[in-house]
Write a structure and sequence with these properties.
The complex is a heterotrimer of chains A (285), B (245) and C (337).
Chain A lengths: L3 H29 L6 H15 L5 H27 L3 H23 L13 E4 L2 E4 H23 L1 H11 L1 H6 L4 H26 L6 H16 L4 H21 L7 H13 L12
Antiparallel strand pairs in A: 1-2
Chain B lengths: L7 E10 L2 E11 L4 E5 L6 H8 L7 E6 L2 E2 L5 H6 L2 E4 L11 H7 L15 H10 L15 H14 L4 E5 L7 H16 L3 E6 L2 H4 L5 E6 L2 E6 L1 H6 L1 H6 L6
Helix pairs in contact in B: 3-5, 4-5
Chain C lengths: L26 H15 L1 H4 L4 H24 L6 H19 L5 H23 L4 H21 L1 H4 L15 H24 L1 H18 L4 H27 L4 H4 L2 H14 L5 H41 L4 H13 L4
Classes of the chains: A mainly alpha (285), B alpha/beta (245), C mainly alpha (337).
Chain lengths: 285, 245, 337
Amino acid sequence: MVDPVTILVTGGMIGSVYVLIAIGFSLIYGVRGVINLSHGAFIMLGAFTYLVVSQYVPGLAAFAVAILAVGAFSLLLYLGLVRYIESNVVITFLATVVVALIVQELLVLRFSLAPRSLQPIISGGIPVAGTRIRYYQLIAFALSWVALGLLYLFVRRTRLGRNILATSMTEKGAKLTGTNVFYVNAATWFVGGAFAGFAGVFIGTLQSTSPLMWVEALGLAFIIVTIGGVGSIKGSIIAAYLIGYLETLTVNLIGAEWRGMFALLLLVAIIIVKPEGLFGREFIE
Amino acid sequence: MSEASDPLVVENLTKRFGGLVAVEDLSFEVHDNEILGFIGPNGAGKTTVFNCIMSVFPVSGGSIYLNGEDVTNWDTHELVNHGLARVSQDSNPFEEMTVEDNIRIFTVPNSPFAFQAGGEDAEIAEIASRVDLEDDLQKLPGSLPHAGRRRLEIAKALATEPDLLLLDEPFAGLNQAEIRDLSEEIRSFRDEGMTLVVVDHNMHGLMQLVDRVIVVNEGSKLADGTPEEIADNEAVQQAYLAGEI
Amino acid sequence: MSNPATADAEESPAGFAVPLFDATANRYQLAVLVVAILGLVTIPVWAPSLTYVFAFANIWVIFVVSWDIISGHTNYISFGHSFISGIAAYTTALLTFNIDPEMAMYITLPLSVIMAVVAALVFALPALRLSGPYFSLLTFVSVLVATKAVYIFSQYTNGEMGISTVSVLTFDNTTMFYYTLIPAAVVTGLLLYISRSDVGMVLKAIGQNEVAVEAAGLDTTRFKIWGFVYSAIPMGFGGALLAHFFGNVEPIAFLIVDRSIEMIAIAAVGGMGTILGPAGAAYILIYLRDDLFRTFLGPNARWVAVWSVILILLVYSPQGILKRFWTFLGDLGGDSA
């Protein structure tokens, strides 16, 4: 009953999308030390933006709009709220999760609780080794790696990117070397949001889109970043694929309602046994 | 060299932070009811030694004995409840609580049912008066001058009724008069039966106060003797290139 | 508990004796308290249409003060308190649904509370060894796991629909109001006592500077665990009480993470660490959520209003709007509690 090719393909594809969820969250957490609990809502907004916009413009354009829109929303959230409260960890926690709840309720009002499916960016697919791989799944996988590559180049080759990396290691040090920390923070939030929007479109297509999806998305972000290790992009990638495969196996072997349970339990185990995650490193203050 | 009645014995203490060896194979004893000076240049590892003793860090090697018992792996609160107290280099009060409450916490017994078991107001006032803080009980630590904050640290340590008190750089930031007063207080504690260890990087202030001196440099013991012996010791003089002694 | 401004901590105009409520209240604060309490106790008389909402709010007072005694004091922010009350509610529900619908409350109630405490400890014991964000994360995850488990094992839990075989305490609103008011008052009183005692002071100290507490000869882990127990017992009781309030137990009202966040938000708005602040805030916010906003905006849109109000209060008054009000009254009178 279980088809190994399907599992290999589906798991890899889900993993590639999960990478995107984690990267955005990790950027903000790693760089700013801020745990942004509205990250799940960003992902959700990506999906809903695409839902609305794709009714008027072709898939790829809607996709681009979703990415930019969520990046902008994230930036606005930082500029309008988070930068005033981020020194107070508890209030930041609460405020960002309340923002997520406000977004949830606004979406419920407009779209109701019923889950929707999104129009794939490109429809159709190709048969491979007995199963059918849809085009959008291939696109997700490919674009995920492209995005990672671009991020790598950005962080290593551009001035802004290097500044972000430096700031993530030591904010004081970055300030001392003349980095415009405000600019770096704003850029980080934008990029983090953009990744979330990106992820949201694919999650919404792959799974379903509903105003409640942010909780699971947030949980996933946490799980992957924590298991992989905070601040480690490599860790996030590995953990994302690990969780992707774990979930695919769970759904295929045990049942759909168990999806996510083992990921949660794995998280619990990691937090208790090795809280810094598989590849985490200490932060210098 | 250690006697059965030594309240504190440190044996072959080693502490590494990654590749850095902060303390290496250090051994010494503290004799009952003495005032022991623990001296070394900045960075010699003095505070690290006491952080290890107080279990702020786990040791990389060696053992620590309190009244003959091996306490190397005990938790900080266990040590405090067995009569060992420390006044840190840096003041660490509860900034949002009054001086009185700061002291009171140090009198609360280690029980989650100790609802009213902390010290009575009179008891707290008495402890405060031993360090001249009885008029400042309702103030917040932030409003005290530097010397006052240091005295609060001592009051907190006294509140735990220690037999052995470690004082880390107690004279730092104090003027001459304050140093004199504090030295007097330290002597009076000893007269009450306490054993004291005073850490400092400046030997000058310590010489008249202590019975015995241990000199530490770069994580190892350099010398051990009376103040006069130490003052004559060439190795010690060389270690203090700037002539701090 | 001494306070910075008054010269003599024993002086107490209302005659509240030291040891129980070891604090002074000036005449403005006292007046506000007295009016509020009298008003609350007589609601069925002067605002009968609010009786049901305030009966419901009574139970939320229990949840919120239970959260406050541990998280509000030690600053270990638990995102999983709905897990504790939810376990209790589901214990009651599962017993009546799967074993005996007529099972007596004197059996189900203690069992529910015990299960809640056990569940709390199962998560608390490993979690308390972790630092702030990881602790919160673990508690957040506990709610997700429990919610998922409810859906996975729907043959026992009836999944989303919930279990309706729980007996309702009473169908009369006024009676229900007093049935819930008394436990709320008792729990608030007990937790206030703990908060003002030396144990409460230690918990608050842990929240400020845990290392210094160890230096005071206090086993912080032990105090934290007991703090959790002091929290979990009334939390479990509240969960079971809520089950008997609705006669129905399902994830949305009892378990989902939104409820946990509401508890934290209410406590923060009232003033973390003050017990009375969260209690007052519970009445105000539940009133807004289930009466005022619901009437004017409907059962769906009201949430936007509720969360927006909470967000504004959190940002502009992070130490708690009720606590700020209390301090304001204190300054008015020249001293403060």
